[in-house]
Amino acid sequence: MSSQKNLTLHLKVWRQKNSSTPGKLVDYTVEGVNSAASFLEMMDVLNEQLLRKGEEPVAFDHDCREGICGSCAMMINGCAHGDMPKTTTCQLHMRHFNDGDTIVIEPWRARGFPIRKDLVVDRSAFDRIIAAGGYVSTNVGNAPEANSMLVPQHDAEKAMDAAACIGCGACVASCKNASAMLFVSAKVSQMAHLPQGGPERSKRVKSMVAQMDLEKFGACSNTGACEAACPKGIKLSNITLLNRELARAQVKS
Amino acid sequence: MSTHSKLNSKVPEGSIEKKWANRKFENKLVNPANRRKHSVIVVGAGLAGASAAASMGEAGYRVKLFVYHDSPRRAHSIAAQGGINAAKSYQNDGDSVYRLFYDTIKGGDFRSREANVYRLAEVSVNIIDQCVSQGVPFAREYSGYLSNRSFGGSQLQRTFYARGQTGQQLLLGAYGSLMRQMGEKSVEVFPYHEMLDVIVVDGKARGIVVRNLQTGELAVHTADVVVLATGGYGNVFYLSTNAKKSNCTAAWRAYKKGAFFGNPCFTQIHPTCVPVSGDYQSKLTLMSESLRNDGRVWVPKAKGDKRSPKDIPEAERDYYLERIYPAFGNLVPRDVASRSAKMMCDKGHGVGQTGLAVYLDFADAVKRLGKEGVAKKYGNLFEMYEKITGEDPYDVPMRMYPAVHYTMGGLWVDYNLQSTIPGLFVLGEANFSDHGANRLGASALMQGLADGYFVAPFSVANYIGGEKLAAVSPDDAVCKQALADVKGRIEKFMSIKGKQSADSFHRRLGKIMWDHCGMARNEAGLKQAIAEIQKLQAEFWSDLFVPGDSADLNQELEKAGRVADFLELGELMCRDALERAESCGGHFREEFQTPEGEALRNDEQFAHVAAWEFQGEGKVPARHQEALVFDNIHLAQRSYK
C-alpha cells in the first residue's frame, strides 16, 4: 500500500441503450485513478466524471465487491474478469495496470445472456437451469439428525470445491461456443460427491442438461477456456464427471 | 417516553424451555387445501427471505418473491465467511441450548428479549440438520462427522463452517430449495424488482409497490401477508462491509407506514477489516472472525513506532487482548475487540500509513501448523487479503481496523416476528429482535435461517388462520394512491436537476455518521450530527442530479431513492443514540464508562427496547419502550476477563 500511484487510463467502454438498440465502444480518459483502487472503483471514478458533465454513467452489475456474490461481469481486454487468475472484476486491482494503458471493457456476450444495458446482461437462464434440478428435494421438517449421515472428508472437500461456483457466467462468456457446461457441471458434481439427493441423481443431470440446451447455450468442445477464466478455480474435470453422470443416467433409463 | 399498546411482545406462557412448544400448539393452522387460496409476498432473498419463501412454497401457499438483484442467489448473506452457531454439543465441551441462549443474551449486553433468544438457540440444531440434508458441504473430520470451530464470545466449539464461505453455502442451499419451488410453480420469482412501498389496507399490510429495475415500470402486487427480509442498514455509514446495494428503503418505507423501528442506534463495528486506504474507496472488506482463533492481535509498545513489524522484537509488542482479557484472549466479542483497537490507535500505538490499524499476526500459527495447515483453514481469506493490499499475510502480519458490519436494530417485531402493522412480518437482520446491543459471531446466519425455515411459516399460518381478510385488488383506491405516491417521488428525484450525485451525498452522510455515531458517541457530537444531517437533507432535495430517464434501467435513480432514506434513518439513529444515556454492547457513550473504559450500562433506566414511531414529515418521532424482563438470566456487568 505504501506504493500508491495515480494512473491515467484510456478506456473503450461498450455503451448500449437497451436490448433492441445497437451498441458501440466509446472512448473515455480517466485521470487520477489510485493504483490501490479496485477495477470497479476505477469505474466509479469514470461514472462520477460523467455525472459531473451531466452525462449518463455506465451501467454495470456489482454488489458485494469482495468476489463472492457473482454480480460483477466485465470482459476486460478480451478476458472475462481480466487476465489475473482466479480473480473477479471487483477483486482486480489497478496496481496491475500501467499509467497510460488502454483498456477495452465489454459485457458478457452469449445468446443465453441477452444484454440489457451497457455492461448489464440478463443471467436468469442460470436460475432456470438450477430450478430444473440443481437441488436436493428436502422439505423443511424432513431432515434427519445431521451426524446420522457420514460423509468422508475427501468427498466433502470435493463437493465444496465444486460448490464454490458463484454463478457469474465467466465460463460462458469466455467459451467460443458460449457453453454453460462448467456452471452446470459444478452443481452436478457437488451433488454427485454427496450421499444426499442420491435418488434424484439421474433425473437431476438429465433435466439440467435439457434446460441448458433450451436456454441456447452452446455445446462443450473441451477447449478449457472456461476453467482458465473461472474466478473460483472450478475444474474442467467437473465436465468429465457431468458427462459420466449423464451417460449413467441414460443407460439406466 | 411511553409504552404503547401496539408494543405487545406476545411472549407465550410457560417456562422458557416450553414457550416455543406452547406457541406452536396454540397457533392456528390452515388446512393444506386452503393454503393455495392464500398468497404471501416475500421481499428479499438472503438467508431469511429465501428460506421463508421456499418453506411457505413447500407448505402450499402461493408465494411471490421480489429481489433487486438479477438472481435470488446474490443477496449479501452470501458474503458471510466464518460460520453458523448451533447447540449440537458435538464436541462434548459442555454446550447446550441453554448455554447458547446464555452466551447470546450476555453477548448482546442484556438488551434482547429472552424468549426470542431461547427459541433461536432451540431451533439452531434443526438448522444444521436441514442444511446438511440440502447438501451443504460443511467441513468434516476424517471420520466423516461434522467439524466445529470456535468464535468470539464463547469458550467452546459450536460453529459449523464450510471453509471461509459458510454464508455462500447456506444461501445456495436455501436458493436450491427456492429454485425447486420456482420450478414447481409454487413460488413466483421477480428478479430486478425493488420494493418502494408497503400498502396498508384497513390497518393491515396487503401489498407492495415495486419498480422493475430493467424497464422502470411501476406495479402493485397484493397478498394476504407481506414478509420483509430485506437486511440491515449498515450502509448508512457509506463505508461498511455490506454489499453496495444493501439499503434500508424497504424497512424505512414500512416505518413511514406505521411499523415501529427498534433500537436504530445499535450498530456492530466488526474488529477485523482491511483498513481504509484512500478516498477512492467504495466499501470495506471484512476478514472473518475465525482468524482470531489462530491470529494474535498486537501493537508496538512504543507510541508511533514506525519500524516494520518484523523488526519489532517480541518484548516490544503488546498483545493487548491477551493481556487485558486473559480468559477469552483474542476471542473476546466484537464490540470489545473493536473498542480496544480504537483505544490502542487513539493512544498512538496504531500501525500502517494512517496509524489506524493493528496487527493480526499468524507467525505463531504458521510455526505450529505449517503454511499448509494455515492455508487449509484460511486459504481463501489470505488470498483475498493479498488481492486487496498486495501483501502476503503468511509473511507479514495483516493490518486490521474495525468497520461497520451489521445492524442489531431494525423494525420492531413481537415474538411472532410481526411488526406493529398486522400482516407485516420482518425476518433476519431487518428486524431488531435477537442480538440486543451486540451480535456474537456466527449468529447472523443462525438467525436468518431460524426465522425463515422455522419461525415465519408458523407465524404466517397463525395469522392467516386467525384473520378474515377481504379481497384487495391493485385497482382499489388505496393501491392506486400508493402507486401514485411512489411515482411522484420518482418524478421529484428526476426534476431536481442539481449538480451533485447521490453517491456524493452518501459519502458525506457516512462521514457524519462515522464521526459522531460510530464506535464512540457523545451528547454534543450527536446533537451536532443531527443538525448536519438536516442541512444535508435540505441540500440533497435541492441539488441532487439524476441523469437519464426514469422509464429505463437507471442506477443513479436507484441510488437516489436509497440515499434519501438513509438521510432520514441516519437522523433517527443519532436521536436514538442520544436518548439512550448509557453504554451497552456496540453503543458506547463516552460519558458512561467504567474506570477501565468498558461499557457502563444503566439497567434501571434503559433495560428496554426503544421503539420509534413515525409522526409525519418534519416532526420528531415518538419514542416508546418495551421493557425487557430477565426471568432466567441474571443481569450482570459483562466480563470477559
For the record, give the distance between the C-alpha atoms at the N and C termini of chain B, rounded to a whole number.
36 Å
Rg on CA atoms of chain B, Å = 24 Å
* Unreliable runs of chain B: none
What proportion of the residues of chain B form beta strands (DSSP E)?
A: 5-15%
How do the strands of the widest beta sheet of chain B line up side by side?
Answer: 6-2-1-10-18
Class by alpha and beta content of chain A? alpha+beta
Main sheet overview of chain B:
5 strands, parallel
Write the layout of secondary structure elements.
The complex is a heterodimer of chains A (253) and B (641).
Chain A (H helix, E strand, L loop, with lengths): L5 E10 L8 E11 L4 H14 L22 E2 L2 E2 L21 E5 L8 E3 L2 E2 L2 H8 L21 H11 L6 H5 L6 H12 L8 H14 L10 H5 L7 H16 L1
Parallel strand pairs in A: 1-5
Antiparallel strand pairs in A: 1-2, 3-4, 3-5, 6-7
Chain B lengths: L18 H8 L5 H4 L3 E5 L3 H13 L2 E5 L17 E2 L11 H11 L6 H20 L15 E2 L6 E4 L5 H18 L3 E4 L2 E9 L2 E9 L5 E5 L2 E4 L20 H8 L4 E2 L4 E7 L22 E5 L16 E2 L1 H5 L9 H13 L11 E4 L1 H27 L8 E10 L2 E2 L12 E3 L17 H23 L10 H20 L5 H16 L5 H21 L11 H25 L23 H4 L1 E6 L8 E6 L14
Parallel strand pairs in B: 1-2, 1-10, 2-6, 10-18
Antiparallel strand pairs in B: 3-5, 4-5, 7-8, 8-9, 11-17, 11-19, 12-16, 13-14, 13-15, 15-16, 19-20
Overall description:
The complex is a heterodimer of chains A (253) and B (641). Helices cover 34% and strands 14% of the residues of chain A. With 253 residues, chain A is α+β, with helices and mostly antiparallel strands. Chain A folds into 2 domains: 6-116, Beta-grasp domain (Ubiquitin-like (UB roll)); 124-252, Alpha-helical ferredoxin (Fumarate Reductase Iron-sulfur Protein, Chain B, domain 2, Orthogonal Bundle), CATH 1.10.1060. In chain A, helix 2 (124-131) packs antiparallel against helix 6 (201-214) and helix 6 packs across helix 8. Among the domains of chain B are: 270-405, Flavocytochrome C3, Chain A, domain 1 (Alpha-Beta Complex); 490-612, Fumarate reductase/succinate dehydrogenase flavoprotein-like, C-terminal domain (Methane Monooxygenase Hydroxylase, Chain G, domain 1). Helix content of chain B is 37%, strand content 15%. In chain B, strand 1, helix 3 and strand 2 form a beta-alpha-beta unit. The two termini of chain B are 36 Å apart. Chains A and B meet through helix 1, helix 2 and helix 3 of A and helix 3, helix 5, helix 6, helix 10 and helix 11 of B.
